[in-house]
Amino acid sequence: MSKSYRVAILGATGAVGTELLELLESRGFPISDLKLLASAKSAGKALKFKGENILIEAVGDRSFDDVDIVLASAGGGTSKTWAGVAVEKGAVVIDNSSAFRMNPDVPLVVPEVNPQAAASHQGIIANPNCTTILMTLAVWPLHQVKPVKRIIAATYQSASGAGAKAMEEVKTQTNAILQGQPPVAEVLPYPLAFNLFPHNSPMTDLGYCEEELKMVNETRKIFGSQEIRITATCVRVPVLRAHSEAINLEFETPFNPDEARAILSNAPGVKLVEDWQKNYFPMPIEASGRDEVLVGRIRQDISHPCGLELWLCGDQIRKGAALNAVQIAELLIEKNLLKSTTK
Ligand SMILES: NC(=O)c1ccc[n+]([C@@H]2O[C@H](COP(=O)([O-])OP(=O)(O)OC[C@H]3O[C@@H](n4cnc5c(N)ncnc54)[C@H](OP(=O)(O)O)[C@@H]3O)[C@@H](O)[C@H]2O)c1
Fold it and tell me: Which of 5, 73, 109, 217 is close enough to 11 for a disulfide, judged by CB 3.0 to 4.6 Å?
């Protein structure tokens, strides 16, 4: 009989947490026991798994007794508080927050790109930032054929990237505006319905917000290359779910768009979506709920002989967070990597 595992979801009630629950069920993840953890305000509520109600518990000192795998999606502060406790008790933590991503001892893994990095984990594996995961899926297969010198990214990020409450807020704002009422912004800093604004993550001294620097630093770590020059402008748009990205790539030598198309049509986790006659390309509404990142509009950059332009949309709650985390857990099982290397 194949082995099954004791799994805990920390942040089970959130946008990523509920997606994790759905994916564990739909992918038939081998679970012998499932613990749902959240804050004290959710304790006693229940979520359904395989038709059964599972009670949510407030995370606490005993939460990680007898747990093999923790899928954490409760924010950086909560991960910092509890990841060490879980590892101490023998679990491996796959963390969706930014708390450990740039820690040199913590692998930052996209299974289609750098699965080998998972082998060096010491109990914690970080899931990259959602926009970064989506971009690496499209750029890595091209980078394998011709090294990328420079990436210029512009993102169009959905409300749900800021969590379940932000998604609800946009719906409420939309209703308010349609009824002639002023939109109220409480979760996001400004009204997003019928609007957009530069990404709401904290601003840094460089003039880049943290989300933009995550794309720079995390992509370099995942690709194992500090040389790639990367810049990004991240924007929040009034889309409920799935992020979009316009990516400009500069290579050492020209990259024929047809060759790029052929490479991406066979790339893992990528689906090529292009109908030039109909001007039909990836859209967030079609990427929502899908595992693959939709890539299209691949074309020569007319401003640079070695430049290539592409456009992508991907479900950032799914492949940008929950699915990537579950794939890492599946990888750990497949490669027998569940035991922490420090124990
Ligand atoms: N949304 C995305 O597209 C996305 C993509 C990639 C990564 N992430 C990252 O994933 C994490 C979760 O994001 P989300 O969008 O799912 O957020 P969310 O919808 O706001 O959910 C947050 C979850 O964390 C729990 N939580 C909050 N404070 C807690 C505490 N002190 N102790 C225990 N549980 C606590 C919440 O429980 P209660 O319901 O009890 O408050 C809820 O289950 C964040 O680090 C985020 O940056 C999100």
Answer: 73
Indicate the domain borders of the chain: 5-127+321-334, 131-316
**DSSP structural state of residue 251:** E
Told to judge if 306 belongs to the known catalytic residues of this protein, a careful annotator would answer no
- Whole-number Å distance, alpha carbon 168 to ligand 1 midpoint, is 14
Taken in order 173, 47, 79, 321, is the CA torsion positive or negative?
negative
| Residue 78, ligand 1, Cβ within 6 A | yes
Hey, do 5-127+321-334 and 131-316 end up sharing a CATH topology, with the first three levels equal?
no
Q: How wide is the angle at C-alpha 172 spanned by C-alphas 171 and 173, nearest 5°?
A: 90
- The answer to whether residues 200 and 188 touch, using CB atoms and an 8 Å cutoff, is yes
Q: What is the mean pLDDT of each run of 10 residues along the chain (343 residues)?
A: 91 97 98 98 97 98 97 98 98 98 98 98 98 98 98 98 96 98 98 98 98 98 97 98 98 97 98 98 98 98 98 98 98 89 42
What is d(CA 201, CA 270) in angstroms, rounded to the nearest whole number?
Answer: 28
CATH superfamily, with its number, for domain 5-127+321-334: NAD(P)-binding Rossmann-like Domain (3.40.50.720)
Q: Is there an atom of ligand 1 within 6 Å of 188 CB?
A: no
Class of the CATH domain delimited by 131-316: alpha beta
What CA–CA distances, in Å, run from 176 to 162, 169, 195? Answer: 20, 10, 14
Q: Is 143 a catalytic residue?
A: no
244 lines ligand 1 (CB under 6 A): no
User: Which ligand 1 atom is at minimum distance from the Cα of 77?
Assistant: 31
